[in-house]
Amino acid sequence: IGSNFVFIPIWGIAGAAFASAFSKLVYVALTMFVIKFRLGIQPLSRAHFFIPLAGFMSYAVVFFFQPSWHWIFVLVAKSCVVTVVYLALLNLFRVIPDFRLFLKDF
After folding, report:
1. pLDDT tens-digit series, residues 2-38
2. pLDDT tens for residues 47-58?
3. Cα–Cα distances in angstroms (integers) from residue 30 to residues 2, 22, 26, 27, 101, in the given order
4. How far apart are CA 19 and CA 7, in angstroms?
5. What is the distance of C-alpha 10 from the center of its chain?
6. What is the 3-state secondary structure (H, E, C) of the chain?
7. The dihedral formed by the CA atoms of 63, 66, 72 and 77, expressed in degrees to the nearest 10
8. Which of 77-101 are b and which e, b meaning 16 or more Cβ less than 10 Å from the residue's Cβ?
9. Are 15 and 5 in contact (CB under 8 A)?
10. Does the predicted TM-score (pTM) go above 0.85?
11. What's the CA gap between 7 and 18, in Å, rounded?
């Protein structure tokens, strides 16, 4: 709530979004700290850091894809491209071990 008082007057609705994201980030960081140091469980592996990387890379591919079609077709095309690129990158980075088994059965 305190971050809302700081960021909403400065940035308006974007400040509200930033304050919410910041609050969620602090909550997740504290939860990870508790899981690691109080419970002794490693909550993340090295592969988990590739998930946001794959998201940013799939967004970058779609960011430069700007066709002059009707907006619904553009929305559907961009959604399909993001999904395919994201899943391909997760498969490439071997983030989800069972994903390859799923692809074999599919």
Report:
1. 888 988 999 899 999 999 999 999 999 999 899 989 8
2. 788 889 999 999
3. 17, 12, 6, 5, 34
4. 6
5. 26
6. CHHHHHHHHHHCHHHHHHHHHHHHHHHHHHHHHHHHHHCCCCCCCHHHHHHHHHHHHHHHHHHCCCCCCCHHHHHHHHHHHHHHHHHHHHHHCCCCHHHHHHHHHC
7. -70
8. ebeeebeebbeebbeeeebeeeeee
9. no
10. no
11. 7
What CA–CA distances, in Å, run from 21 to 16, 49, 56, 71, 106? 9, 18, 17, 28, 37
Residue bearing tokens 């960011």: 63
Amino acid identity, position 34: V
- How many angstroms separate the Cα of 44 from the Cα of each of 28, 31, 64? 12, 12, 32
| Residue whose entry in the numeric block shows the structure tokens 């999904």 | 83
